[in-house]
Model the fold of this input.
Amino acid sequence: MRGGMGMTEATVLWSTGQMRGIAQSHRERIPPRGFAGGFPAGTGRVAVLRHSDVRRALADGRFPDLDLAAAEMLPSICATVLERDDIVLSFGGGGGGLGDPLRRDPNVVGCDVRDARVSAGAAEAIYGVCLRDDGDIDAQATCEARAASDGGGLGTGLRRRVRCRPLIRPATRQSPSRSITPGATGRAPLADKASEPWP
Done:
């Protein structure tokens, strides 16, 4: 499974011209670990874009220019002063993955790409899922990429060589949308319906 999504947040002062305080971020050096072969998440950090045109941009109905190359990266814990037109950028790295990325259902990876949760490049480099120009999964190329993978991509050595074979989702916890039938004990057993094999 893919790890939890990270988040980037931009904050500006609105009702005051200056603010002094303590900036704090987490997981700047050691990212959240993955589990059972899952890759780690990204790291977190806080940065400040000084003297931006944020108010003019918003007044003009456009999104402010967030030039990360010009941002001042803050230490994980520090005292800082924010001025009226400074933009505070907070980056959350998300959560680590669960399970070998090469065992993830390619159709689910494809949905993540269409939803802009994962880039097409990351889908191939991390999950071994190759997409055609129209966005559909290239089944043959995906099988070949997964079969040939030996820890490439991110170069972490976390991958292992796997054979390309139909992927079946394991039984999962009952979701509210699935029907259940009360058992003899009064408890509702899990519906054990596997997905269709892929490809």
Remarks:
- The radius of gyration is 22 Å.
- Residues 101-148 form one domain.
- The chain is about 15% helix and 15% strand.
